[in-house]
């Protein structure tokens, strides 16, 4: 097992894409097997050494940034063990440190599809499960959670769980009993909160009545255990995909287009035949400020696209492609898209260009911030369908009044757009945080969630106190301690460490 202590070598493990400063750790340990992970954790528990799990560091909420203790790197757990076809599609087994891009390349080479698609594909499979990552395709396929069949997880105690979907459920009283080797078991009590009813949600532990135990670990942000292996559910790879970037002169037309495209897509999936087959897998938004930013790299972005743009994709077969393209063109025309200026693609190389256009926005924003030595203030809220238009108006009115630079973009199909506020200096950063707080409060009041896909990490934990009560946070901390009695794993993620200190009881029991 490789250990790095020389400060230059550990530097890159002390940060992630959040730009959260001040990370520090005594050393980085590179485990090569689940047994090594378990041994590291067991020793750390005995010594009370905090352990921060590291994936690829593409997280944007500071989840893998350590503040003391050691970093457990998953880079060397990087084998794809199996990809197998079956009648529904297939399944693949891979270790946590495989990059999502490599995983997807291998899966696609077998004629299969792994739908989770966060824009940043250099993340690791384990990291994407630990954050329940989503992406553009989530509109059709749902988040990572929906594609996890089985997880191998090393717990802080050194126990190893191999847990399959459908195996262990919470009882009606919210109690979860998880058997361990040697006749012992973990008894955990689920927190009593009800999650917001949004299409996407990644704020704190996933809790539902009678829930499957595997769902607790998905999105737990390195606080409950270290995911070492994932068995993923795969679908047949679609024959072809058509896509486009449609520009609009007015926001009203753009939003009406989104509403109809979404409604028809959902009806198509229910088997309704009066939708002309419209079934978007992605509906992504760019506001007019985003287009202004992108124009620096893409001069062909039309000046008159003052209402913004929508990136859309739909899966097709050769036999249906022409028919579906004309259904999309009709829909766009009806909502007055700027047809002559919009871009359409059916060939993979052209679609890749459109996806690259989508991907370039956060990249350009991050470059701009790096030049100004500032951190963006970035929202990740989603709201129920009927609240979206009003909250988008609220975002824009507040931002225009502030004179701060910003872009709004993202997963409009799921009522989930990212507002990135880009302060130039400390005063602006302060103003941006005030506005962010007002957005969080508004989203919660609208029945929304504060994080739909990025998670809470360290950057957003104070805002989780607005979504849930202190009692709920204490319940989350108690749940964590059922799996991690010494409180070593992912300290400071999701809730602050003070909640761990208040809960000291743990519940690993001998069999009755
Ligand atoms: C430009 C850009 C665009 C992005 N777009 C999207 C997007 O569209 N959708 C989206 O959901 N995200 C997006 N992200 C965020 C990011 O890609 C995800 O959060 C990613 O899933 C994290 O994976 P990682 O391997 O980089 O994890 P890291 O950043 O290393 O870690 C993330 C968290 O998971 C924990 N963790 C990592 N590995 C494990 C493990 N094996 N076991 C237990 N815990 C673990 C860490 O402790 C940490 O808390 C974007 C990021 C960037 C930079």
Question: What is shown here, in short?
Answer:
The protein is α+β, with helices and mostly antiparallel strands.
Describe this structure in words.
By secondary structure, the protein is of the alpha+beta class. The protein has three domains: 2-73, 2-Layer Sandwich (Uridine Diphospho-n-acetylenolpyruvylglucosamine Reductase, domain 2), CATH 3.30.43.10; 80-236, Uridine Diphospho-n-acetylenolpyruvylglucosamine Reductase, domain 3, CATH 3.30.465; 240-445, FAD-linked oxidase, cap domain/gating helix (Vanillyl-alcohol Oxidase, Chain A, domain 3, 3-Layer(aba) Sandwich), CATH 3.40.462.40. It contains 15 helices and 20 strands. The protein has helices at residues 7-10, 34-47, 100-109, 125-130, 138-141, 213-217, 251-269, 288-295, 321-334, 348-372, 388-402, 426-445, 461-467, 470-483, 498-502; strands at residues 2-4, 27-30, 51-54, 70-73, 80-86, 89-95, 112-113, 148-154, 160-164, 175-179, 185-189, 226-236, 240-248, 280-286, 308-316, 343-345, 377-378, 405-411, 416-422, 508-509. The strands form four sheets. It has a seven-stranded antiparallel beta sheet with strand order 16-13-15-14-18-19-17, with helices on both faces. Strands 5, 6, 7, 8, 9 and 12 form a six-stranded antiparallel beta sheet that branches. A hairpin with a 5-residue loop joins β10 (175-179) and β11 (185-189). α11 (388-402) packs antiparallel against α12 (426-445). The longest helix is centred in the C-terminal third of the chain and has 25 residues, at 348-372. The structure holds flavin-adenine dinucleotide (FAD). Residues 16-17, 52-60, 63-64, 74, 96, 118-120, 123-124, 126-128, 130-131, 133-135, 221-222, 226-227, 362-363, 453-454, 457, 490, 493 line the site of flavin-adenine dinucleotide (FAD).
């Amino acid at each position: 097992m490789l250990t790095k202590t020389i400060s230059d070598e550990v530097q890159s493990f002390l940060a992630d894409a959040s730009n959260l400063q001040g990370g520090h750790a005594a050393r980085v340990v590179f485990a090569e097997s689940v047994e090594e992970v378990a041994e590291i954790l067991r020793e750390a528990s005995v010594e009370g050494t905090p352990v921060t799990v590291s994936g690829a560091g593409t997280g944007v909420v500071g989840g893998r940034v350590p503040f003391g203790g050691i970093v457990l790197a998953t880079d060397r757990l990087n084998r794809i063990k199996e990809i197998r076809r079956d009648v529904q599609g297939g399944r693949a087994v891979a270790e946590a440190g495989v990059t999502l891009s490599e995983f997807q390349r291998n899966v696609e080479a077998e004629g299969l599809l792994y739908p989770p698609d966060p824009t940043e594909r250099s993340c690791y499979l384990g990291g994407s499960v630990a954050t329940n990552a989503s992406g553009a395709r989530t509109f059709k396929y749902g988040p990572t959670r929906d594609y996890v069949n089985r997880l191998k997880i090393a717990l802080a105690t050194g126990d190893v769980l191999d847990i399959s979907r459908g195996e262990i459920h919470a009882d009606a009283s919210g109690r979860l009993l998880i058997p361990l080797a040697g006749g012992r078991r973990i008894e955990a009590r689920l927190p009593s909160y009800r999650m917001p009813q949004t299409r996407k949600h990644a704020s704190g532990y996933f809790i539902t009545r009678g829930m499957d135990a595997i769902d607790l670990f998905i999105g737990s942000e390195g606080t409950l255990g270290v995911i070492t292996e994932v068995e993923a559910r795969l679908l047949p790879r679609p024959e072809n995909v058509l896509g486009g970037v449609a520009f609009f002169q007015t926001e009203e037309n753009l939003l009406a287009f989104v509403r109809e495209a979404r409604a028809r897509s959902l009806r198509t999936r229910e088997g309704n035949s009066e939708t002309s087959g419209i079934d978007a897998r992605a509906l992504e938004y760019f506001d007019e400020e985003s287009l202004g930013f992108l124009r620096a790299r893409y001069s062909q972005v039309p000046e008159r696209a003052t209402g913004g743009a929508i990136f859309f994709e739909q899966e097709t077969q050769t036999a249906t492609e022409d028919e579906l393209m004309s259904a999309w063109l009709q829909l766009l025309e009806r909502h007055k898209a700027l047809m002559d200026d919009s871009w359409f693609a059916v060939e993979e190389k052209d679609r890749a260009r459109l996806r690259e256009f989508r991907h370039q926005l956060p990249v350009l924003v991050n470059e701009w911030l790096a030049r100004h030595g500032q951190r963006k203030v970035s929202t990740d809220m989603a709201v129920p369908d009927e609240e979206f238009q009003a909250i988008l108006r609220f975002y824009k009115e507040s931002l225009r009044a502030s004179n701060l630079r910003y872009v709004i973009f993202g997963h409009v199909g799921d009522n989930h757009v990212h507002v990135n506020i880009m302060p130039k200096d400390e005063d602006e950063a302060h103003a941006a945080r005030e506005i962010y707080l007002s957005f969080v409060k508004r989203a919660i009041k609208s029945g929304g969630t504060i994080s739909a896909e990025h998670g809470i990490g360290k950057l957003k934990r104070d805002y989780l106190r607005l979504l849930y009560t202190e009692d709920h946070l204490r319940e989350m901390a108690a749940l964590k301690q059922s799996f991690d009695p010494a409180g070593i794993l992912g300290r400071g993620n999701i809730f602050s460490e003070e909640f761990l200190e208040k809960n000291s009881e743990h519940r690993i029991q001998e069999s009755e």
